[in-house]
Structures are given as C-alpha cells and as structure tokens.
Amino acid sequence: xxxxxxxxxxxxxxxxxxxxxxxxxxxxxxxxxxxxxxxxxxxxxxxxxxxxxxxxxxxxxxxxxxxxxxxxxxxxxxxxxxxxxxxxxxxxxxxxxxxxxxxxxxxxxxxxxxxxxxxxxxxxxxxxxxxxxxxxxxxxxxxxxxxxxxxxxxxxxxxxxxxxxxxxxxxxxxxxxxxxxxxxxxxxxxxxxxxxxxxxxxxxxxxxxxxxxxxxxxxxxxxxxxxxxxxxxxxxxxxxxxxxxxxxxxxxxxxxxxxxxxxxxxxxxxxxxxxxxxxxxxxxxxxxxxxxxxxxxxxxxxxxxxxxxxxxxxxxxxxxxxxxxxxxxxxxxxxxxxxxxxxxx
Length: 345
Description:
The chain is built from eight helices and 21 strands. By secondary structure, it is an alpha+beta fold. The chain folds into two domains: 229 residues, Rossmann fold; 109 residues, CATH 2.40.50.100. The strands form five sheets. A six-stranded mixed β-sheet has the order 6-7-8-3-9-10, with helices on both faces. Strands 16-20-17-18-19 form a five-stranded antiparallel β-sheet. It has a four-stranded antiparallel β-sheet with strand order 2-1-4-5, with helices on one face. The protein is elongated and about 75 Å long.
C-alpha cells in the first residue's frame, strides 16, 4: 500500500497542503484537477524527485520519504514522453533494464513482450522523431512498464495525443492495469478519462485534495461549490432555507427525501428532470410549471434551459422529445423530478 501522511511542500507562491491519502495494491487512483493546481508536483514528490517540507510517504509500511527515486521501485511517465532521441524504440524501452545490468537475452525478450503488450512491436527499429504522438506515448509507457514498477506514476499521459488515440490508450492502460497488481497513480484534468480509468478519484484544487471517492459516487458528494463547478455539475442550487422535508431555493419549495441540517447546496442531474406539456402523472413530489428560456446541443441530447420563477434549471432530453414537445423560447411546460434524485452538500 502507498500512503501519504500530511504531505506539505511550498514552491514559490504554490503550496501542496496537508495531502493525506492511501492507494491499495493493484488500485488505479486518478488525481483529477485543472491545470496549475499542483498535480505534476504531487507526482514528483511521490517519485522522490521533490522532497516534502513535512509529512511522510510510506510503501507497505516502510518510510520512503527520503529514499532516492531509483531505489523506490516507482516509475514516472511524463506528458511530453521524454524519450531519448538518439535511441530507437527498442533502445528506449530497454534503457531501464540495461542500466540495472540485466542480461542481454533477458532484456531482448522483455522488450519484445512489453512492445507486444503496448502494440508497438513493429516500431522497435524506429527513432522517436519518426513516431506519432500516440506511438511515442506507448513507447514511454513501455519503457516504464518493462521495469515492473511497484507504482506507475502517469502525468497527463493522454493530453498530448489526438482524441481517437487517447481513447485507444485509455483501453490499453485499463487492460495493462488489470493484468497485474501494480498501483497506477494517474493525474489528469479530463473528467471522462478519470471516470473511465479510476477505481478511486481524488479531486485536487489549489494544492489540496478536496474529495476522494469512487467514480460511482464522485458526482453525488461534492464537498463544496468549487468542486461542483470543476466537475461540471449543472443545476447546483444555493439553499436559502432548510424546511421540513426539503428546502427553499430562489423562492421555490423543493421536496428532498434525505435532508442535512448543514447542507448549503442541492443539485439535480439534468437527465433526472422530466419535461411534459401537461402535469405529469407520477409519484414524484416535485412538479412545477416552467418556462423555456433556451436550449443547446449536448452531444446526442439537447440541454433545455428552463425557469421556475427565479429558479433556473437545465434538463437533458432526446431530439425526438424536443420535437414532440414543440419546444420554442417562451414555451410553458411542466418539469418533474423525484425527491430521491436530489443530492445535498
């Protein structure tokens, strides 16, 4: 198990503050946050390239805070690949084993098998400058994986490749992870990437971990409005008053199945809001007359923006539903959502 205990590190005006977390053997842990919040610094502290000002890092109970990087058994893959331009793909992949003095036959065998795993066996004779971004990233991953690290540290590994290759590399990373018990510690700004790969996700803002949860729960329990905004949550509503069985927000009484006396916000997923021309026959306890104020495409769905008095909401509907409802600006509809579909924080 990899554990960080109250890690602090100040670099100029930037500070990593009180980072405490644990990653179990074989877990894929994703640190999710926007650019400039300290994700790369965080990885370099874990790798041993930057020493913390305070706190401890332990690996299977042993303190490795001041153990040199080459003795930790960790491997770091940067966003910009950092391949050796004078070596071909085979030489780049083999570098770590050759530096450790492995027998040439063993090195050759493991280069072949690792390149096969990453889908680059046909590229072993090529130089890095002749490769695409995706091929360079696969080579960098192979160079890290061949050493069989205890922990693989990935710094925005898909950010510099085109969307199609990024999608393919996501599958490669997931498949490689599932083959063994190596810990993957991956930092990214991409929410979809984090949800696809992570067993657990930690949201990092301003050098602090604000939230650690599973992909299934990450959107249900934002710790504050800033986290909710970064995650792109729509229909985040400020609570003006907590009432018996719900709350009042922007002058609208909202029924909630489970309330919390400390809640400051509630949020409703746009896909949980149903729109209809007439009152909807349902057990849902929240149904309001609303007005259409606009709409925009949201992938295969349409996001319809509505107002219930002073309360603004967004609902996601299919294009066929959009046509059936004859939606136009200013149209009066009914919106319905269950009290159990409302989350509090």
